[in-house]
Write a structure and sequence with these properties.
By secondary structure, the chain is of the alpha+beta class. It folds into 2 domains: 49-131, no CATH class; 139-205, no CATH class. Helix content is 20%, strand content 31%. α3 (142-150) packs parallel to α4 (159-166). The radius of gyration is 26 Å and the shape is globular. 22% of the residues are buried.
Length: 206
């Protein structure tokens, strides 16, 4: 462990009324060394690769960036793209939210997040939609896999399948995943509702 100590000051007095502080080691040198250590510890660390637990729906914004949102933007309009579940990514900081870079295709997606409308802080939300290993596809039915592959809600899909296909619904419109209606945004202005029957599968999308 490297330890740093700020050097003590030596005081030289001239006569009875005048004292001058003389620092043995310049504080600037100490600051430079500390900065070098921080860069060594954190700047060279390899970013952790994680896997998306659900599809991420993104669109090309007016500034040319691919952007996604906690509200999901699931409508397949021009400029819309789906980053598939199980895609390996690296997470990085961005305001307001975070970004991730897909491994292999090297796409950078800027993901907006507003904690006022979700019950999770940013770190917990990232942990909610990513995992250290891919999710097993065998856990889903055939209709679930079809919806996940297409990024759409299909009649007969389970709640688990919808969650992977469309993402987690924003909690200010869907307070609990136990609800029988999940609300998603087609874009910033329009919504869709995924309705579930008593058996927990999709009966309508409108």
């Amino acid at each position: 462990m490297t330890m740093f100590m700020i050097s003590r000051s030596q005081t030289t007095c001239h006569g009875t009324n005048s004292c001058t502080a003389v620092t043995k080691r310049p504080l600037l040198l100490v600051a430079i060394i500390a900065l070098w250590v921080l860069l060594t510890l954190f700047g060279c660390a390899s970013p952790q690769v994680v896997y998306l637990k659900n599809n991420v729906h993104a669109h090309r914004s007016h500034d040319g960036k691919l952007k996604a949102s906690y509200t999901n933007w699931v409508y397949p309009s021009p400029g819309h793209t789906v980053i598939p579940a199980n895609t390996p990514v690296i997470i990085g900081p961005w305001r307001p939210g975070f970004y991730f870079i897909t491994q292999g295709t090297n796409q950078r997606i800027f993901f907006e997040y507003d904690q006022r409308y979700m019950p999770y802080n940013l770190s917990d939300y990232i942990n909610l939609i990513t995992a250290s290993h891919p999710i097993p596809e065998a856990a889903f039915s055939e209709i679930d896999r079809k919806g996940i592959d297409s990024g759409k809600a299909l009649t007969g899909m389970s709640k688990a399948g919808i969650r992977v296909a469309l993402g987690y619904p924003a909690s200010h419109r869907t307070p609990s995943l136990k609800e029988d209606v999940w609300v998603y945004w087609r874009n910033r202005h329009r919504q869709i509702r995924v309705c579930f029957g008593d058996d927990g599968t999709v009966i309508a999308v409108h």
